Amino acid sequence: MSDVARVAGVSVMTVSRALKPQTPVSESTRARIEAAAEELGYVLNSTAAGLSSRHSGFVAMTVPSLNNSNFSDTARGLTEGLRGSGFELLLGYTNYDMAEEERLIAAFLRRSPEAIVVTGGAHSARCRSLLKASGVPVIETWDLPADPIDKVVGFSNAEAGRLMAHHLHSQGHRKFGFIGGDGMRDTRGADRRRGFLAALHELGVTEDRVLSEGDPPLSMGEGAAAMTKLLDRWPDTKAVMCVSDLSAFGAMSAAQRCGLSVPADIAIGGFGAYDIAKYALPDITTLDMSAEDIGRKSAEMIVDALSKGGPASLPDRIEIPYKLIVRGSTAA
Amino acid sequence: MSDVARVAGVSVMTVSRALKPQTPVSESTRARIEAAAEELGYVLNSTAAGLSSRHSGFVAMTVPSLNNSNFSDTARGLTEGLRGSGFELLLGYTNYDMAEEERLIAAFLRRSPEAIVVTGGAHSARCRSLLKASGVPVIETWDLPADPIDKVVGFSNAEAGRLMAHHLHSQGHRKFGFIGGDGMRDTRGADRRRGFLAALHELGVTEDRVLSEGDPPLSMGEGAAAMTKLLDRWPDTKAVMCVSDLSAFGAMSAAQRCGLSVPADIAIGGFGAYDIAKYALPDITTLDMSAEDIGRKSAEMIVDALSKGGPASLPDRIEIPYKLIVRGSTAA
DNA sequence: TTGAAAGCGCTACCAC
DNA sequence: GTGGTAGCGCTTTCAA
User: Fold this and answer.
1) Mean pLDDT over all residues of chain B?
2) Domain boundaries along the sequence of chain A
3) Do A45 and B112 touch (CB under 8 A)?
4) CATH says B2-44 is which class?
5) Which pick of A29, A214, B79, B133 has the fewest CB atoms within 10 Å?
């Protein structure tokens, strides 16, 4: 920068100002400086700028999995929502592993992000304390934690499961299955299952047919394998909720390969409003949580919380509306 | 850090060393320092560390689209390959837009990344010169550019298109279509189309039936719309290559909704070995470029180029092998 | 509108 | 194995 200053015949301070928009530098000086910077191939060093100004320009985000259109839609919504405010996204994936999430968050915190967006409301104790001590806005998404760290943009996964249970029950089915992942790594998936089963119990259905198959994220392969096992074990099952549309598609595909007709022989519901649910044959009944909106609302919250002009005007908790999309896989 | 030093009764230099693995600090001192850091809730400032050491610890990567399992697989391969070497990934998406790519690369360069991975071999002139002037390893992926900026991990998209043409022709088809995106934004998709058509011409097929629909990335919706139009315009089409498996699935779904049987009435080939191609009914013939390997090899190249011990031992250009996976959508 | 000085928090370098 | 000093490249603050 001092080289640029020398060539342009000004001080480094003036160069620093000229390189930022909306700073008081005369037009002629700015033009001279820009010419000098171009000539020298000068590139501003954001690391030094961040150290000096104590503004890293980073927003950190962790998602369970990159290869999941729900989360990449949320990341896209966040990026779009942040566009123009000068933030860059530090994106990491945890692979549905709390220890990895903790490692990732710790690494991000060393970069002094100005806000942090995480997926879900379940974290290791140390992760929670790191986030609380960070001193910057923290947003938990895709969930409605009972004891949030700071801010929340999400919905109740249990309620979503209940909604699907009521829909399938209303179609006249009485023998239900649920296909999801092993264990509790995907806590949001487990919440959906819990809500689904609770609603069925309330409706008088007492028999559970839960099939857990493989580590999250459940994709088509695990969904197909789970359906094959489920039909083997309980051949009279009439309606199945899958933890995601990807597993629902795999499950439907497996049922069809077994010669079953969907929904005549078996109804299948998914989750997440993935593209695949719309273009499958038949198309798949699903729950749409507007994944991109979750990111967009998070961005709004961040900009709001970080804006200097007065106190934050947005609530700390935004509930995302969601809707059931009834399609051919459950309604003939 | 000076607070930690005071509490532990050592100098800041010793704290700095103790916080990094593999530095000569006595075990007792290190334990004392770690206790002090924990007590104070101290978090290392990587920004300052990067400024001082001139090692940002970043590897930058741009992909056309986040929500595409090919690219997220490559990003995952890169992350996994970099694990343990202490690098963090700065990931951005260009939305298949060269101007956006240039903006993104410029922003990344201000963060002094230690290596840069980009998708494809087509960039704006300014983007090329920025990358060349960066002074760090640059890897172009998913392509085999004639005039690479620096290093390359990829394959020939045109050759991939040729391979699919030969396969479909060998199945006895003589009336071919190609479904891809509008314009030249997706240069790799355009290369596949070029190779596909060139091979057909060589095989004596003179009639082209190219249907371009919508902006990249082409997803199921555009594939379905394109197939509907294609069948409307050229109802006797017998074999179609789609620029990706997602569009192939959409196209197949549209053909089936029109009452056509796949592959008896129309054969459909895709690209990318997505999950959907494996679980669709029928399953879809595709080209597998081992997307994750592209990321993994890129990571190897970076570690190799940045390792201090002697000169780089890997070639500057790694060609990724790919294979045709013949499935039910083209072979009855 | 511009400039000079101080210092952000850390590590390279050299000394012991 | 440990400590002191200088300085990374920028922006803050204050003064002109």
Assistant:
1) 94
2) 2-44, 55-155+291-320, 157-288
3) yes
4) mainly alpha
5) B133
